[in-house]
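Continuing the series of single-chain predictions for the mutant panel. This is the parent chain; the variants come on the following pages.
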Amino acid sequence: MGLSDHEYVNFSQEHELNYHLQKVNKAESIANRATLVTMGEELKRKQSTYFVTHGQFHEYIKGNLNRLANKAA
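Parent structure:
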């Protein structure tokens, strides 16, 4: 049985991108969401796949935290 569509990141859904930003305590900004979309495309190319699970994407984000802006103090 395949994975549920809930297990995949939908990069067109702002709330899903914000969820990943919240998990790593980064600002929920337009720029950070755009960076996540770029990172998602990178990961898809790296894995040679069309889909990325939330778990795979979270690990990729953790390795690229320097690319995301912090929350305002």
